[in-house]
Amino acid sequence: MTETAENPTPVVILAGGRSRRLRPLSEEAPKPMLPIGGKPFLQLLMERLAGLGLRRFILAVCFRWEAIRDFFGDGSAFGWSVEYSVEPRPLGTGGAVLHAQKLWGARALVLNGDTYLAGDWPAMLAAHEAAALPVTMALVWSERPERFGLVLLEAGRVVEFLEKQGGGGPADWVNGGAYVLEASALADYRPGQAFSLERDVFPSLGGRIAAFPCRDAAFADIGTVESLEAFRRSQDGPDGTARPRT
């Protein structure tokens, strides 16, 4: 991975979830802090982003957030800037992003803190600028679309968003858990309100979401014990240290 020029766009990482599906592991530490080859999962995400020139992080946190702050601090030890948006209670993905908006301002790259997608984020930011739409959504091709948010596309835009429909189905494009978001996309909501990007915001923006396909990018989530262990196996090198994908 080649390091690129500094990019001023802040990165909001949703790191406040408790994840009952990962019990008892998620009782010991916040989900994004679960270890992968000796490093917290969240550190792997941030290291890759920093390598792409994105070094300003806003961590949207809630459950046992002090463990995250104690590890990363203000980010200076890593060469980054790290700020914290602490939810007073779980606000959902949309509520968490809006709660943090006072820190990120007009535009942010928003990532799920339990998803690893090796996207070309500078290219996605450029595509978002060109599209001039409220949201750009990273998409990945999945053989198991029932686990994720299925999207329907038309002329390079997401026209319908079906969040985790279940029931199986053929391979298709799914939500990759990464978005470039304008503050205007959240104009219908108020700070402190609990709501979901996936279930509330995106369906209301059908046709005004630019698609950014990431067909060949490595993609994984750690939302279940099985997927966490699979990601650990894919990342561990022969010496037991983390081997981040690029």
Q: What this model shows, in words?
A:
The structure is a single chain. A hairpin with a 2-residue loop joins strand 2 and strand 3. 26% of the residues lie in helices and 28% in strands. The C terminus is likely disordered. The radius of gyration is 17 Å and the shape is globular. It has eight helices and 13 strands. The strands form three sheets. The protein has a nine-stranded mixed β-sheet with strand order 5-4-1-6-11-8-12-10-9, sandwiched between helices. A two-stranded antiparallel ribbon has the order 2-3. A two-stranded antiparallel sheet has the order 7-13. It starts with 10 loop residues before the first strand and ends in an 11-residue tail after the last helix.
Described by the principal axes of the CA atoms, the overall outline is globular
Structural class: alpha/beta
Estimated share of beta-strand residues:
25-35%
User: How confident is the prediction overall: mean pLDDT?
Assistant: 84
Distance between the termini: 6 Å
In short:
This protein has 246 residues and is an alpha/beta fold. It has helices at residues 25-28, 41-51, 65-72, 92-99, 101-104, 121-131, 197-204, 225-235; strands at residues 11-14, 35-36, 39-40, 56-61, 81-86, 107-112, 115-117, 135-142, 149-154, 157-163, 172-182, 209-213, 219-221. Strand 2 (35-36) and strand 3 (39-40) form a beta hairpin.
Tag the structure with descriptive keywords.
246 residues, alpha/beta, globular, 13 strands, nine-stranded mixed beta sheet, Spore Coat Polysaccharide Biosynthesis Protein SpsA, Chain A, two-stranded antiparallel sheet, disordered C terminus
